[in-house]
Amino acid sequence: MEVDLMSVRQSSNTARARGLTHVRPAEVTLQDALAAVADPVRREILRELAAVPEWTKACGTFDLPVAKATRSHHFAVLRAAGLIEQRDEGPRRLNRLRRPEFDAAFPGLLDLVLSHPGR
Questions:
Q1: What SUPFAM superfamilies has UniProt attached to this entry (predicted)?
Q2: What phi and psi values does residue 39 have, to the nearest 5 degrees?
Q3: Model-level pTM?
Q4: Strand partners, 96
Q5: pLDDT tens digit string along 63-108?
Q6: What does DSSP assign to residue 95?
Q7: Residue 94: DSSP 8-state
Q8: Terminus-to-terminus CA distance in the chain, angstroms?
Q9: Where are the domains of the chain?
Q10: Is 32 left (phi over 0), alpha (psi -120 to 50) or beta?
C-alpha cells in the first residue's frame, strides 16, 4: 500500500489549524486583555507583528528569550485575548495582529502597548 506523504502532511496541518481557537476581541473582558498585554514577552510578540505585513511572520521566527513550549503558551494567550490570529501554511504557523478588531473593542490600548519601549 502506497501512502501519499503530501496528503498526510496536508491533512495533519489542516487538523492542527482546525484545533486553533480564535476569540473575537469584542468577546474578551478588559481583565483578560490587560493580562495578555501585561507580559513583556507577549508585548514583544505584538511589537514584532505590528512591524511586518499580515501573515508573513511564523512563530519560529520571533526572537524570544523563552523555550518552545513557553512560546506556544504566549501565542495561545494572545489568541485567547483576541490579539492575534494564526493559520498553518505547510510546516509553518503564520500570525496576524488583529489590530482593527482589537482597537474597536479596546480603543487606545494597543497603541499604548506598541509605543512602550521593548523588554
A1: Winged helix' DNA-binding domain (SSF46785)
A2: -85, 130
A3: 0.83
A4: 85
A5: 999 999 999 999 999 999 999 999 999 999 999 999 999 999 999 9
A6: E
A7: E
A8: 53
A9: 25-115
A10: alpha
